[in-house]
Amino acid sequence: MRRFISHKVKNLITKTTSYTISSSSSTSISPSSTAALRFLSTLQPDLMATPITIDTINPKVLKCEYAVRGEIVTLAQKLQQDLKDNPGSHPFDEILYCNIGNPQSLAQQPITFFREVLALCDHPSILDKSVTHGLFSADAIERAFQILDQIPGRATGAYSHSQGIKGLRDTIASGIEARDGFPADPNDLFLTDGASPAVHMMMQLLIRSENDGILCPIPQYPLYSASIALHGGTLVPYYLDEQTGWGLEISELENQLKTAKSKGIDVRALVVINPGNPTGQVLGEANQRDIVEFCKREGLVLLADEVYQENVYVPDKKFHSFKKITRSMGYGEKDISLVSFQSVSKGFYGECGKRGGYMEITGFSPEVREQIYKLASVNLCSNISGQVLASLIMSPPKVGDESYESFSAEKEAILSSLARRAKTLEDALNSLEGVTCNRAEGAMYLFPRINLPDKAIKAAEAAKTAPDAFYAKHLLNATGIVVVPGSGFRQVPGTWHFRCTILPQEEKIPAIVTRLTEFHKMFMDEFCG
């Protein structure tokens, strides 16, 4: 925009100057024109200047990092363009993105019922056409009518209430109640553009200065370190125990809380990611009860990231929401402050680009809730399509509905395939020299530990990069496989990992295993000598 304005000003000055020169002998310039020219002449240098530099931007932005879309991904995109421009220019023919939980970018198909309802809501005029009944299921048509009746103006392009459309919040609350067996209040729900804005909203609310801390699991999802940095707080790490399958030990929470307090940090909240990202573990009920007791005892807000609640792959584990756990313990609104996050981006639906999600807040005073509502109001509202999807994932087709069988088949096919992919990759990683990988119980990721040779670590130091990033770059350049270095998620000092998604198409998993196995052997041969 600045460049556009500068160009226009230049042209205007040039034209005005030309006019002045050509007309000076016969026509005088009015005082107002002279003043305008003088103003434009002084304005142009300003427009050409660059007053904002890397040294003058908000230092909190500089402190913020997001490894999932970092340097490795930038390099991968360059290689992808190289392959397009010069086929055969690299020892692989495609880039395999195993770095981010983005299912549909890797050819996962959307759930038919969800997309039918969205299409009908976005183009409601086709509901009145006879051909529609031959193209869409009866329950999708009925659901679209129900949803449109709740949307202002029956239009998905309209603004909604800042917390989200009331009727859709009613539907989500009913879904939460059906899941947990305890009541849910639609007024406790804030519908957001994915779970990430909800996390930012809570960080804005909780963090007053760098003396305020948020307990976060390490390894952690970079959204938390980034949002804490952006809002000026302090991340207080607690380390998950890799030896016990990334277990969350209460003694570790207590030690880190004590250490933070000794440094003058006022810890405000505890973040728990269940199922885990990037670690893939699923918490047991007893452990969750201990976590609730810890938060209640210490007066901490419990921030429960539960966006992978549908992604559980092992028969001996089951997802339980922290809302269910707290209520089953007899704790209500006055006992503990809980914020639960959910998203349409994960699960078996993988609707990342639709940007839908919500947070359920309980245990906050009316005065604080007013401030949360104010924060939501600043953003006006979340997008309506995302709101519709959030209601659909919490109220899918039920037995007897026309879409039930096809919906159930699609869900089962996706989740069972993810489980097979997870097991195949887990076994392959554990077969590699110096690599150990915990069981993938849930979520969409594996987080193997790699014991790198001293020679590789020294080479990484010489290249001024973390050893696991050094490994990841070599992997990408040799195979086209994109993973995220564990250092981007933080880890126990002196250990090295990488995060790998289980999302590439199932038929591509064997090729990934082959490429990874061959590369790892070559890498170890090169740096063990």
UniProtKB/TrEMBL annotation:
<dbReference type="InterPro" id="IPR015422">
    <property type="entry name" value="PyrdxlP-dep_Trfase_small"/>
</dbReference>
<dbReference type="GO" id="GO:0004021">
    <property type="term" value="F:L-alanine:2-oxoglutarate aminotransferase activity"/>
</dbReference>
<dbReference type="GO" id="GO:0030170">
    <property type="term" value="F:pyridoxal phosphate binding"/>
</dbReference>
<keyword id="KW-0032">Aminotransferase</keyword>
<keyword id="KW-0663">Pyridoxal phosphate</keyword>
<protein>
    <recommendedName>
        <fullName>alanine transaminase</fullName>
        <ecNumber>2.6.1.2</ecNumber>
    </recommendedName>
</protein>
<dbReference type="InterPro" id="IPR015424">
    <property type="entry name" value="PyrdxlP-dep_Trfase"/>
</dbReference>
<comment type="subunit">
    <text>Homodimer.</text>
</comment>
<keyword id="KW-0808">Transferase</keyword>
<comment type="pathway">
    <text>Photosynthesis; C4 acid pathway.</text>
</comment>
<comment type="pathway">
    <text>Amino-acid degradation; L-alanine degradation via transaminase pathway; pyruvate from L-alanine: step 1/1.</text>
</comment>
<comment type="similarity">
    <text>Belongs to the class-I pyridoxal-phosphate-dependent aminotransferase family. Alanine aminotransferase subfamily.</text>
</comment>
<dbReference type="InterPro" id="IPR045088">
    <property type="entry name" value="ALAT1/2-like"/>
</dbReference>
<dbReference type="Pfam" id="PF00155">
    <property type="entry name" value="Aminotran_1_2"/>
</dbReference>
<feature type="domain" description="Aminotransferase class I/classII large">
    <location>
        <begin position="153"/>
        <end position="514"/>
    </location>
</feature>
<dbReference type="InterPro" id="IPR015421">
    <property type="entry name" value="PyrdxlP-dep_Trfase_major"/>
</dbReference>
<dbReference type="InterPro" id="IPR004839">
    <property type="entry name" value="Aminotransferase_I/II_large"/>
</dbReference>
